[in-house]
């Protein structure tokens, strides 16, 4: 599991080499998703001391919205990249893996909609969900895919 203890100036999720699956594009993209998760987490705590409460809240909500948007967009890019590879190498578990991506995308979309409609607790729930989902997905489904991809000569 990832580092979950959080202190000042510390990342929410610390990448560890044991999350590497050994296929370079997957590892690169997973690391980037971790960066995005950390950015979202930072934006949830962002405060500027010289602002009024109202300005603070507004700016914070804007920052969170931007980070959520970045997360959603990048996760989409990542899923399509994995799906393209699965198709190309004729990965036998492609339908199941794709279904997991779709479940995840649906859940994210729900959270985004709840956040947009003013439920501010969603930010923290989303960042926790993203972390837990991603690390579990990497450890099980993506590791399996990577093994198969390697057996087909991919690096
Ligand atoms: Fe995946």
What is the level-2 CATH architecture name?
Answer: Up-down Bundle
Beta fraction of the residues? under 5%
Distance between the termini: 25 Å
- The CATH superfamily is identified as Hemerythrin-like
Shape: elongated
Domain module tally: 1
User: Which CATH class?
Assistant: Mainly Alpha
Could you say which structural class the secondary elements and strand pairing correspond to? mainly alpha
Number of strands: 0
Calculate the mean pLDDT score and round it. Answer: 90
Q: Please describe the biggest sheet, giving its number of strands, its sense, and whether it closes into a barrel.
A: none
Rg from Cα = 17 Å
CATH topology: Four Helix Bundle (Hemerythrin (Met), subunit A)
Structure annotation, total helices: 4
Structural summary, described in words:
The structure is a single chain. The chain is built from four helices and no strands. The model has no long low-confidence stretch (mean pLDDT about 90). It has a single domain (about 20-150), classed as Four Helix Bundle (Hemerythrin (Met), subunit A) (Up-down Bundle), CATH 1.20.120. With about 160 residues, the protein is an all-alpha fold. About 70% of the residues lie in helices and about 0% in strands. The radius of gyration is 17 Å and the shape is elongated. The chain has helices at about 25-45, 55-90, 95-115, 120-150. The structure holds fe (ii) ion.
